[in-house]
Amino acid sequence: MLRYLFIGIVALGLTTMASADRGLVTTSGPSGLFIHPTAESQPAGTYKISGLYFEQGGGGGDTNTVLASVQYGYADGLELGVNYIDADPPAAGRNRSVGGWVRYQWMRENEEQPSLAIGWVQNDGSARYETTVFGVAQKRLTAPTDPLAVHGYLGVIYARSNGNSDTQPYVGLDIQLKPHIKLVGEWSPNFSFNTKDRSAFGIHYLGSGGVDVGLAAVQDGSATSHGFFLSVGFNIGQ
Question: Is residue 95 predicted with pLDDT exceeding 90?
Fold first, then answer.
């Protein structure tokens, strides 16, 4: 069932492709790396439809998760989004939740300064993280004339889960090897209510027509090992 939902998201996006923000849908909801959001906001007047499928192993068996999201550039630097999460952890039974977020980019990157953004994500009580608040800076680390584009990310994230909460920093790096291929990696120390550090590494494919595809190994902090992650995003309206 979860795989069919993911396929439906892909089919919907293929009917409305265009070009806009090129981040990937994350396990947090807002676009970014694989787990953590970045400082890029959706351009004003454009949409992004995204979906991800994520398999993670645990002590009681595998958990398969599908997340579908829509984010909209409400104004310059101001993004609004909604998401739907469908997960089937073996011990707790199937969880479905609905949530939304706001992200505001108050500084845009140029040669002298990074992009800076803050965001707030709120999901209903059945979600793994009911509340997430983040702040993040990003900056190109290589010269604009350098064909090897390297971007660095430094952020802090607060999360609340089942009455527990914690705040941790996170870092990320992407390297654009070719016009359509990025290598992406990220890491964050474990939250006090998790058992593992959160980390991911994989490939971001920037397709024509505003299509973004992510393929990665992801550890969200609660699994026994890195799990399979696949995401697809479609930009509309630019």
Answer: no
Q: How confident is the model at residue 108 (pLDDT cuts 50, 70, 90)?
A: very high
* Overall pTM surpassing 0.90 (yes/no): no
Token pair belonging to 43: 């351009």
Write the pLDDT tens digit of every residue in 143-173.
Answer: 988 889 999 999 999 999 888 999 999 999 9
Burial class (CB in 10 A: 0-12, 13-18, 19+), 115: buried
Count other C-beta atoms under 10 Å from residue 113's C-beta: 11
Cβ contacts of 150 within 8 Å, gap of 6 or more: 140, 141, 142, 173, 174, 175, 176
Residue type (1 letter), 42: Q
Residue type, position 111, single letter: E
List all residues 6 or more positions away from 231 whose beta carbon is below 8 Å from its beta carbon: 24, 25, 34, 50, 51, 52, 53, 212, 213, 214
CA angle 40/46/52 to nearest 5° reads 65
Hunting for tokens 């073996």 — which residue is that?
Answer: 90
Burial class (CB in 10 A: 0-12, 13-18, 19+), 183: middle
| Integer CA distances (angstroms), 197 to 54, 91, 161, 178, 224, in order | 17, 22, 16, 30, 11
